[in-house]
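Q: Focus on the shape:
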Amino acid sequence: MAESAQLTSAPPTWVTAAEPGHWFRLSGNQPGLGLEPTPPGTRFLEDGDPALDPQLNPARTVVEGLRRWLGRRPSAPWQGRSGFPAMTEAWNSAVLATEFGASGSMVVFGGGHDDYFGSDVHAFDLASRQWSRISDGYLAASEAAYGSGAVYPDSVYPDGSPLPPHTYDYVQYDPVGNDYILFKGQTELGPDVKAVGIAHMFNLSTLAWRRSARHPVAILNSGGWTTWDPVRRLVWGHSGDAGGGNAFIAFHPDGKNEDGSYGHWGQLHANKLPGHADHNAMQIDPRRDVIVVAAHGRRALYALDPRHPGEALTHLSEAGHRPELAAYAALEFAPSMDAFVYCSAADAGAVYAVRPPEGSSWKSLVNGTWHWERLTDEGSTLNPIADAASQTAYHCNPAHTFGRMRVASFGHRDVAILVRHVDSPVYAMALD
């Protein structure tokens, strides 16, 4: 059951034409594989920017009306310092929602701190290859509703949507509940952002938000990383080092509490990589019940036993074509390949498989050798990192991957899906 929960409902038509090991543009003005561009207004993430919608963001002053008449980008009370591009450039992730759309969708939210205050949610449908805004978020007319001094103790705006943080790798997806899960909260945005241990869930069936109770001592500040455990139906999360990050902890999304909150937190365990906890990646293999951590600061892979979450990480032996581990990378599990998949923008978007040793016992997993294999073909002509950077009109953070690379599984085929910038294509690569 855990394995099937990772599979999308039906393969999109373009899957069979994808050549393994070669990235191609899945969307945009010039998609690959001979695909036709989708209708204007659906090709890019920024097409759904609520600031561009005059009904959601009317020009309230003569000056703003003149700006728009001159063709300048509309300003909005919730735009923050960077505006909508922060959804990809400001330390932000995404999830693959396998039960949203005929073949699943990449779902994007966040970009906050002082960069963007909008709580809108967007989805890229893998079957239609179209972007859409699926929730408008909190759209107040006054700038006083956002940023420094606008305090929301439960970390939600008046409409129930969460104040958007930099999500880092703090977001996951529950296919059973059909929930996008954000592992942290903010009570105030702006230069002196206030982070709290409040989880938020966006249900993709009802398009409604709900939140957890606040954890009394967990510090979930910058640079954290998570994985969804389909066997136990919970998120495992590790804080970064920033602000005294102190947590390795689970969050269970099920159940309504007497105070109106939902879900509950597990036992708090200490930081497992003090001084090296920022911007790592971890992923669970639900078949072998092992969590693997790619710790870039220590240039090593580690194993974590979810049956004994309080124990220390175990260093793993590695061999094969191993990349240099980098910050902000993505680590996924590919069910058809029965291997982990690693991708770092710092390595030109090259994708690697990390295969476990023989056997499924904990002893065999931690004593055996894990083998690396490059999956991106050396003859591949498209570098998605450079291609996207050449197309964006905005300042970009090219090193950021986080969960904006996810693996979709269709029968016996695993496909990497990569979201880069708000105005660049979505990319895909068949892995096998």
Notes: Residues 1-6 have pLDDT under 50 and may be disordered. The chain is about 5% helix and 30% strand.
